[in-house]
Each structure stands twice: as C-alpha cells, then as structure tokens.
Design brief:
Blueprint: E1 7-16, E2 20-27, E3 32-39, E4 54-60, E5 63-68, H1 76-80, H2 88-106, E6 113-114, E7 122-125, E8 130-133, H3 135-138, E9 140-141, H4 151-154, H5 159-162, H6 169-184, H7 195-203, H8 217-224, H9 236-240, E10 255-259, H10 263-274, E11 279-283, H11 286-293, E12 300-304, H12 311-320, E13 327-332, H13 337-346, E14 350-353, H14 358-377, E15 390-391, E16 398-399
Length: 402
C-alpha cells in the first residue's frame, strides 16, 4: 500500500535504474494498472559541484516551483561579451570542470536524454571564477526534431544532430564549441554565410577556420580531436586525460614572476608556463620585479642571470627585503662550477639552462622543495639579515647566523 492508500503495489519489478525501482501497482481511484516507483535517496547528498544545484522544489496548481543557485553573471557568452581576453589557463580550468560535469551525467542511467550542451547553458559564478552546467536547460528528449534550425544555431550543433542522429558524443562537440568561442572571441563557422556552405563543411567534419586562432596549441589540438565522426570522437573521460587538461599537482596554483630584460625571452617563458595552465607575470628589470613583489604574493621567481642588474644581485636584494618564502630559480645559458657556487651564495633555490622546457622547471622546483624540507628538518630556519649572512653547504638555500 502507498503512503496515501490510493495505490496498491505488488512485488513484481517492472523496471530499474541506478537509484530507482519500479513496481507493478494498481490505482484504486482510476481502476488501472500503473508503475509505482521507489527512489533510493542514499548518497543523495553527494552532489556534483560542477552542475547547478537545486535547493528546493514544490508542485503547486499544475506548476513546479524550483529554487536553485543564483548566477547573476549569466551564461558564459554574456559574461565574456565586452570583456578583455581571459587567460588560457582559465579556459583550461573551465573546460575541465565542464568535462567533469558531462562525464558525470553520462555515467548515469539517462540513455533517453541528450544534453545538447550550449554556451547559454553554462553559467558563470563571477565571484568564484567558476562555471557550472545548467542541466535544467539543456536536457531534451532525443526524439525531438532538429529540422528548421536557424543557421546561427546550426553552426554550433554537432553534424550528426543535423543529420538526424543523436547521442552522448554531441555533448562533447557542444563542449568544444563553447571553449572555441571563448578562447577566440569568435563564433565558429563565421565563414559560412548560408546553409549550403555550412553543410558542405559539416558533412566532411571540417573544423571552422577560427580553430587556427585558438591558443595555446595544446588546447587547439584537443579541440581538433572533436571534429570527427561520432564513433571516433573521444569521450569526456578521455578528454580529461589529455595534456591540456592535466595539471601537475606539484605546480598547480603556483604564480610565477618572470624577470628578463629581453622581451622575447619573457614572452616565450610566459607561454611555456601558460601552456601548462600556470599563471605568470613578467618584469623587465630588478626595480619592476621588486615593485610587483610588493603588490601581491608570488610563489616562484624565474630570473635571468645576465642582465644590467644581474640575477645574483637581484636575488640578494629580494632576500634582503624580506621576501624569504618565494622560490627563486636562476635562468642561464651556461652551467659552470662557478655558477653552482654563486647561485647558492646569492640565495637562489635552483637554476635551469635555457632554452628550457616545463619538465626542467618542474625538476628545479622539486629540488627547491626538497631543499626547503631538508632545511626545516635540520632546524636551520630561513631567517635573513642584510648584515650577517652564511650559506648552508648542502642546501640550495641561503640561511643566516643569529
């Protein structure tokens, strides 16, 4: 018997899913057989935080009243409209968050639904700099017709949708179009002015021209993987494993200050860091670097050694000014025994040889991390003074006599 005595349930299970069991039952008020569903709420508190959260719901006079989180900034398209370019690392984070939401939904027993992910269904939390997927807006029955779609919508739709076929791979395609529009600031397939031109490209799964403008290259190559037939398109889970969306746990969240008097070198270094999803700020000389250090905390200083005020003197000054927690890595074209001695004396934690890769930066940071840990273990401390200075021989770290 049900909670209101209207329905009489049997033990005959007529359907089931991940959380639900449906039993054959009888509706006493209408004199007909029905399916009586029981939903298991165990673990319901385990919400996916990349999906908009429903707070409360109620049904009143034929209407469903739903209370959700508020995203005053609106969807990702309106949020980015008229703003300065957002750094690639932000889109890498947003892209991974959306992939997690899509992969989670694909793991549920919702095979009759196609999400048809679009920019208008991705909401931005401006204060947190986060995005969430609004599944209340994106869910649609796969039997819906996609004919007579306006051309601007058709430019964002998966080719298979326009050909009358639907499936989960459409969501991955929609995800790629959101990121592509975000990183380039342009609507995909803008080069197509009519349906004939558009369908000709889509039939060949040819990517839009704007793809070549997507930066960094690692992200561009991942997006390129989507413009293939559905059976060849990677899943959301597979895309999360791509290099563009994997963050080295040892470097995640670090903010680098890049110091070099050569503008080209600064640009190259910042691009190497940006391609790994790392934040960086550049400075052209010692004075500018010191000024920036006073405005916000930095985790790592990458400084060229050969400059008018060389990297050694810059490091000494920074340590004397009390910036003892920042890791300082010297950048040089030549590694000599004298260099190994001087960078320790100056207070650098490690050095790399240019041209360097992100792997070398990671190894230098690992050396620096281990050096600091060993220093603390030995109880040496890291107090610094402008007058009484000594060097820990086994550590890549400057210490001070008290």
């Amino acid at each position: 018997m049900s909670w209101n005595a209207r329905f009489v349930s049997t033990d005959n299970i007529v359907g089931s899913s991940r959380w639900k069991l449906a039993y054959e039952a009888f509706d006493r008020a209408r004199g007909m057989r029905v399916a009586y569903c029981v939903i298991n709420l165990a673990g319901a508190e385990q919400e996916m935080d990349r999906i908009i959260r429903a707070i409360e719901a109620d049904r009143q006079q034929g209407e469903i009243h739903l209370v959700t989180e508020l995203f005053a900034a609106g969807n990702i398209r309106s949020y980015l409209s008229g703003r300065d370019a957002v750094e690639p690392r932000v889109f890498r984070k947003w892209g991974r968050d959306l992939l997690m939401a899509i992969a989670y939904l694909h793991s549920l027993d919702v095979s009759s639904l196609a999400l048809t992910v679009k920019a208008k269904n991705v909401l931005v939390h401006a204060e947190l700099g986060a995005v969430k997927l609004d599944i209340l807006s994106v869910s649609s029955l796969v039997s819906e017709s996609s004919s007579r779609m306006p051309i601007e919508e058709a430019k964002l739709a998966a080719p298979e949708l326009l050909m009358g076929h639907k499936g989960q791979s459409m969501d991955v395609y929609g995800w790629a179009m959101i990121l592509l529009e975000g990183v380039t600031g342009c609507r995909p397939y803008g080069e197509c002015t009519n349906y004939s031109q558009l369908f000709e490209k889509l039939a060949r799964y040819e990517p839009p021209d704007v793809l070549e403008r997507a930066e960094p290259r690692s992200l561009r190559e991942v997006l390129r993987m989507v413009f293939v037939p559905p059976v060849e398109r990677p899943t959301a889970y597979a895309l999360m494993e791509e290099r563009a969306f994997t963050i080295d746990p040892e470097m995640h969240g670090l903010h680098f200050l890049v110091l070099d008097d050569d503008a080209v070198n600064r640009k190259v270094c910042c691009r190497i860091l940006s391609n790994e999803g790392l934040e960086s700020t550049d400075a052209e000389d010692c004075a500018r670097a010191v000024q920036l250090l006073g405005t916000r905390p930095f985790d790592v200083l990458l400084t060229d050694i050969v400059m008018p005020v060389n990297g050694f003197e810059t490091t000494r000054l920074i340590r004397q000014l009390g910036f003892v927690d920042i890791y300082i890595i010297g950048v040089t074209a030549h590694a000599t025994d004298e260099l190994k001695s001087r960078y320790r004396e100056a207070g650098m934690d490690a050095y790399v040889i240019k041209p360097f890769t992100i792997v070398q930066v990671r190894e230098a940071l690992r050396t620096a991390f281990l050096g600091r840990s060993e220093d603390l273990r030995r109880g040496l401390g890291r107090s610094l003074s402008t007058e009484d200075r000594s060097v820990s021989g086994s550590m890549e770290l400057v210490t001070v006599a008290e």
